[in-house]
Amino acid sequence: MRKIFVLSILLIPTVFFHLNAQNRVQTDTSGLAVNMDASYNRPFLQAGKMPVALGGYAEVKTEFMQTDGVNEGYSFQMQRVTLFVSSSIHAKIKFLSEIEFEEGTKEINIEFASLDLRFHPLFNLRGGIVMNPIGAFNQNHDGPKWEFVDRPISATQMLPATWSNVGFGLFGKYIRRDWVLAYEAYLTNGFDDQIIANTENKTFLPASKNNPARFEESFNGKPLLTAKTALRNRKIGEIGVSYMGGIYNKFEEDRLTLDAKRRLNVWAVDFNVTLPRLKTAIIGEWAWVYVNVPDAYSQQFGSRQAGGFIDVVQPVFRGKIFGFNHAVLNVGLRSEFVDWNRNRFRETDGAIGDEVLAFSPTLSFRPTAQTVLRFNYRRLRQWDFLGNPPALTGGFQLGLASYF
């Protein structure tokens, strides 16, 4: 199944090249951007004829949260400052980099730094530090685009949000009237055994983000394959299917066999739609994770995980507010669920816990399309490995995010 899916993506340019040549249709493509365009679909500033354009965004929040009645009072956090630098070296050669400073420079990451060489709308080459296109949030993660203060749990604690690696790949689009079909496929450096050897004491894919050596060399010499295809209609919305997988452990050293080759496979489905009359935005993502965990590991290391989120956002007012002529007031709700261990106890055949269920109502104010002030109430129910009664966490969050 995995090979058939990847082969179908790679054959898209061949299949549609002939159709594109025979049926060229002049159309306005401004409303046909897909999630794979998120890296370039940002506001940039360019001074005069300078070949370099600059941009970025910032996020700040304050919150009061408590778990089972215990709290630590208010806290304030500069979540992140992100800088973009892009350059059109040639009409068909582009460069883009994204550098993120998280939590007051506690973490500094190069999330994207790639060169695009464009040959044809359906066949283009990208090389450098690329954002692995698993799901939609990993690529389309900019804070000012979202009505919620925190990033989704499934995208940050099950999947590794802003997961990027060094590699090469192909991407392209076929556009016809109100439809666009897009694909991406990359071979990059990948995960390491920290996904099971970590301080979380569970299968935890984001742990591999702690290894900066992945930008220098592969952990085991085996590439990580990430591939995605997406279909979008201007009037309806977008749906995408993606796959990411490869060997994650070091199975050989100087021709000496250390372990069996252990794979990790991730499948994801994402969608977004805006209802035409009400302008209700519905955005969702669901992912399945499969990891070959050694038998010697305890049962708290799950070989199967699943989770996702769905956002529903409804504009309730558009117009002039406080001198902002095109302001928008939104209400919304995010629902989230993650199961870090879908296995069952060997002794009793009972379901293993380690799950979280969360809801976040929101009220957001957008003075402009590029700035959002958001007020959330967040409620989480989290079950431990044994499935004991859940810990209850709740509280209020106030966040401000803007491109600059």
Strands in their spatial order, largest beta sheet: 1-2-3-4-5-6-7-8-9-12-13-14-15-16-17-18
Distance between the termini: 44 Å
Q: Percent helix among the residues?
A: under 10%
List how many beta strands DSSP finds: 18
Mean pLDDT across all amino acids:
91
Name given to the CATH homologous superfamily: Porin
CATH class: Mainly Beta
Order of helices and strands: HHEEEEEHEEEEEEEEEEEEE
User: Based on helices, strands and strand pairing, what is the structural class?
Assistant: mainly beta
Radius of gyration: 22 Å
Q: Give the second-level CATH assignment, the architecture.
A: Beta Barrel
Uncertain spans, ≥5 residues at pLDDT below 50? 4-30
